[in-house]
Amino acid sequence: MRPSNFKKTLLATNIALLMSGAMSVSVTAAEVGADDNIEKIEVRGIRASQQANLNTKRFSEGTVDAISAEDIGKFPDKNVAETLARIPGITIDRTFGEGQGVTIRGVQPDQNLTLLNGQAVGTSQWFVLSDATRNFNFELLASEMVAGLEVYKTSQADIDEGALGGTVILRTRKPLDLEANTFHGSVEGQYGDLSEEVDPGLSGLYSWKNEEESFGILVSASLQNRSVRRETTEDFGWFGPSIERIDPLMEAPAGADEKGATPWGIGSALFEQERERIGYDITAQWAPTDDLDMALHYMSSTMKADNVNSNLIGIPFRGVAFLGEDTNPGTVDNSIVESLDVTGVDHRPGWARHMAYDNIFRDGSEMSTYVADFEGNWSLDSGKLHWQIGTTEGKGTNRDFFTEFWVDATDPRASFDFTNPGGTAPAIDFTSASPWLANPGDEMWLGGIFDQLNETTDKETYAQLDYSWFVDFGGVNEIKVGGKYRDRSMEQNRWKTDLQGLAPTGEGSLGAASEFWKGDMVNVAHANTSNPSQSYFMPDRDLMYQALYDVSECTATSTDLCRNSNVFEGASSFDVSEKISALYAMAKFDVEGVRGNVGLRYVTTDSTSSGTDVNSGEAVSFDNEYSEWLPSLNVAYDLADDVILRAAASRALTRPAPFQLAPAVNLTPETSSGSAGNPFLEPLTAAQYEMGAEWYFTPESILGVTAFKKDINNFIYTTTVSQEINGQQIDQLSTPVNGGNTSIDGVEFQLQHAFENGFGGYANYTYTDVADAKVTEAATVTDADGNITGATTVDRYVELPNTSKNSYNIGGYYENDLFSARINYNYRSEYFIAQTEIGNRYRDAQQQWDAQVSWNATDWLTIKFEALNLTDEIWENYYIRESDGARLGGTQSANGRRFYLGASFRL
User: Fold this and answer.
1) Which fold has domain 3-243+274-429+451-509+520-550+561-906?
2) Single pTM value for the model
3) Angle made by CA atoms 408, 413, 417, in degrees to the nearest 5
4) HSE, side-chain direction, 13 A CA sphere, residue 555
5) What's the CA gap between 594 and 638, in Å, rounded?
6) Are strands 113-116 and 167-171 parallel, antiparallel or unpaired?
7) pLDDT digits (tens, 9 = 90+) for 522-562
8) Which residue among 446, 529, 550, 676 is buried most deeply as judged by most CB within 10 Å?
9) 425: which residues sit within 8 A by CB, 6+ positions away?
């Protein structure tokens, strides 16, 4: 049977099955995606939805996975990133308990591409410590705003370049595809077991079109509130066993070397955030003739993210120098400090302050994005003309009012117990200091403070023109050509107000803790982390803010305590602009059961990275220009009516992230650390190959396997260097550099089946093997006294970040006319994060159980209950010590469970 006839037969069979009473559905066929041969069925119900997803996958020319949602609020997860995690080969990060970055086939998030209706979306961040990337922030997009999505794991010439792992294309609805006066809505309440708050969520969609079905308007809106609470045992980096290079303030006392490795600091941290996400989506569509269709689309999403982070920090490292003294008994095993009691002593130098208390208030932080797009299709006798022009802008406003209390190093009331059994579970216990932590006096002093504003803008304007020429050249049935121009700018600006001449403790500080406390407390259960339960005072934000701005402004002759207001931080500000032009040609073919596409894309990039030299303070600018030819081939062969063999080959291009290209730094002088950009970075390229087979043994079932390989050139990795910046010695400065070559090899396995009794299940597994890349770096040669005597090079092996070797999903469901229920288990193995002073840092294996139950109360009303993170899993970082491979514990964070109860309806 020819593929075109087979597709028609399958579609008719599916419609008949769905209308036969097996489940309540409404069905529509629609064109979707970059491939005109892809058919999409809009359906209701788990089983029917999975059938529609397989229909998209089955008839695509490349390797495509799809997820559809026929009703607003009917996506299988509360966040689109979490939905993507159900697809083979995709893993996600849940740093704040909600899906964020998407890793595809072992490639980290900022080297993949997310498009909305085929075009870029301006990115933004609410968190000042999040460096600017190209990766779309899925926290911005409520699932109610999306009608469906496709993930293209292979390249093709008519889709934007920029993805090394895969391209996610999100789709929104159009009014002429829906019935006139369609109304969908949903309402829900969310409960978080850590925040113990109930938050509302509302969404609605209305679509209208005239009787002639030539003009229509669709409006949808979404409101979601969420009270976020995260409890963390936080580490500030491991050092040792020698202490000579650990602390920029420390001078090793006699006999202090080789005391044992320990974290610089361990904190009892509480993060609380009030999120309010509001989204709007408006589409006007006009089809004046059967041959002409135009749509004007506007989408806007804003997330307000007021938050405060409190962290009571013990600094065991500064107790190592005094290890063995009667006042600080401790134990060391395998050159790792396993216990240490630290107390202020009268002969301890002032720089050895061993307790700090940070509170960071981020009132007014938010991020937003909008898209304005005009798209049209004009059908001609010989083919179809498509155009798309638009603009998108993402803005992030990050406000940091930072306050820091310090203890006097000689104060015996300032004490804590550091425990670290086996080196794998570092913890801080402030029980011995609990009386004054619950009712502070002058045990702590407000000795660090600044008020900072960080603004980021990511803006792109684009114009695209494509023409599909329908031909009959042997097996070639369509030739598609097109071009696109993009003008993108990614900018960050930072301003800071701080104090000059502020002492960390005593009379030169802003005052004792008692002057800034009105009775509020911080209570952190730490039920799932290594820290014990903690309780300590919460300083009053307004009193500290007033204290900062009560200090007199600095003048040219100021020598005492004074304030520098709203100073532009040139070293942390930058602008990266790009002008990108692309031309492509692609031929589609279908002959004797073989279909696919072959194409060539040519792209040029002209970029400029501007900023401020960190030492001279002068403006600097760096230009870079490069061009690439990007061929691609996708082939699908119908071995039988229900068996498809696939093969693909392509060349891919990925550009460095904006901050990676920026001549800018983000520094933390207190720990002699920071990060810096590198405007000399070159883009990554990769040769990609894959082969696979798919057996569709029923319309809702698949058994498939795909092997893939990526040979990556000029990959980017992060190295740590020591550098003097503006008079400050930074011992741990992380900066990106281009390496040599590496490869990613992997296999994806997928099984999905629906039984006739209402039950069904699915499982997928991905194995990803990333070769450690060999890089050569410059190094110095020193003599026995530590004097530099020469230069040399050293070889080392670098891992690619965010790549889990094993990941899988297992799920099951039951569905009848009245009820449906599903449960899903998601797992990803540990993965590399970054290189540090003591060794590589990793994120431990992550797993999560989610469940959903719904009841079709009427033909138009559905009641739904969802539970996320049922087993209350945490995420945890750890280190592997470079010298001997010992595992060292790090940060542990608990985000808690989330429960949803809601109703959705359609009229």
Assistant:
1) Maltoporin; Chain A (2.40.170)
2) 0.87
3) 100
4) 3
5) 6
6) parallel
7) 999 998 899 999 999 999 999 999 999 999 999 988 889 99
8) 446
9) 419, 530, 889
